[in-house]
Hints:
Layout: H1 3-35, H2 44-56, H3 59-64, H4 70-95, H5 108-131, H6 138-175, H7 180-185, H8 188-212, H9 214-229, H10 232-249, H11 252-256, H12 260-279, H13 288-319, H14 323-347, H15 356-374, H16 381-394, H17 405-410, H18 413-424, H19 429-440, E1 460-461, H20 469-473, E2 494-497, E3 506-511, E4 514-521, E5 524-531, H21 540-546, E6 555-556, E7 560-562, E8 565-567, H22 579-584, E9 595-596
Parallel strand pairs: 1-2, 6-9
Antiparallel strand pairs: 2-3, 3-4, 4-5, 7-8
Amino acid sequence: MDTTTARAARTSALIRLAIGLIQGIVLFLLQKADESKAWPATQPMLYAPLLVCALMVPLIPLAALSAMRRTSLIAWSLIAAALAAILAVHAAWTGAAPERLGAGPLSPPLFVATAALLFIAHHLIQPADAARRPVAPYADYFDLACTNAIRLFLSLAFTGAFWLLLFLAGALFKLIGVEAIQKLIGETAFAFPATGLMFAAAVHMAVQLTEARAGLVRGVRTVGLTLLAWLSPLMVVIAAGFLATLPFTGLAPLWGTKAATALLLAAAAALIILVNAAYQDGGEPPHLVPRLAARAAGLLLIPIVILAAYALWLRVDQYGLTPDRVLATAYLVVAIGFTIGYAIAAVRPGAWMKPLEPTNLIMAAVSVLLLIALFTPIADPARLSVGSQVKRLETGKVTADKFDFQFLRFDSGRYGRDALDRLEAGTNVDVAKRAREAIALKEKAFARARQGPNFANMPVYPAGKTLPATFRAQDWANGDSDSTCTLAGMQCAALVLDVDGDGMDEVLLASGGSFDVFKSTDRGWRRVAQASSSCNGADIEAALKAGTVKMDEPTPRRDVLVGDQRLVLSPTGDGCSGAFANGMGWYKSGVIHEDVR
């Protein structure tokens, strides 16, 4: 290393350490302000952008200090700060409310979105700046993104190891009665600056290491991605098998999962990742098998994304927009863009999958724009969801008693609260009353839904019998039956039978190898007994279908009396067979005995 290079490295190290230390100090001051409810924490519209910018923006000069021109780096850092501030201000504006009710302005999605936005945008800007043109060679984008991902991982691992050693030191010294180290690392005045300083040092060392050993890093990356690419044939077989099975199963089982869109988009994402693992930087084509699998994956994306779009459209058409469906729509837009580009790349002659390169760059830019839109009023999921749901209420698609007013009060920020105010001032008396009740709530109330067993799909025996209307109409949501068969969605087999000989049928629900016996009382249907055996469990389902479950003739039996308490003898082990069990008239598997004394 010559003198000039060494001097430049030392300068970069000092600047990075200064950035890290300043970042740690600023975060400490913001944390103390929030803890003591002092300025600027008392002003969410100021505190939010300060916190997000202090946490996110310094990563840009830390990563690109010696790789971008100074004016370009300063300009990009200022633009990044402006973008982060806009997103944070909007989050604070939508979440801020008296008594801090409603969505928190600094929710985790804000930080995740800001980090993703800046990461993607940075890896579009830095290669173009280095190449001195608007669009750099694709290999430059790929190489920088992979290298910075490795650097980030190494930096986080180094910082984590630093803290593990500090905790170990604190524990060791505490063993000999010295608690100074443990107290020191517990102070936020030390923790924040030390973390910022060590992370900055780790970034500098990672940059120096990856630049000095660029060939080694590239080799490790190539090996890892090549191994990953060999999973693409498996994913292609899975996706093709899934699509080939659909004509025989129909779409009903898929829609029945209530997560079809998410699962299909996850499958599309897996195909996209594996195609990129095979393509890498577009240099040397991979082995024939991953190469063919990548082409097939590009074509399989078409039906998978179409199904995802159809599933999402069905849910939106039936139930309107929700924040999750708005986000799913954004993911779908990205998936459609990748699908078009990859399908063209799969069938286009010439260099292998070459259209993948502009597709990736275009969709990266689209992703940045979508993130900005989603976390500003342009396409804020809360705003779009509130508009959709309120429109459904006003047009009569959903009645006031079925409408979720609490979503407007607690889960959609300022947009929902403003909508509640409009509904309260409206002319519909019932809607206004419910809106007023929602506004008065101080915390979200979780109403107990009237949910119970899945009676529609519950098999009833013997043939020709039906469950009593009062049994079906009972509210089983209170959970006081002490039977798993009455939980929401359960569909245990039911036997309608007069157990006690009073001329009124009881309901027996098959639970494993036993029956839960329900009887109609003045307090509704109650679980009054259980028919079970301590011997090998009976095959109740088979016996019900065969019609062999019935009441036995009354059989005398002997119990053990302990004072005025009666203990029922139940055979176990060797007592389950032979004269011992048969002679005493005990319960046997599959047959219910009524006792007489």
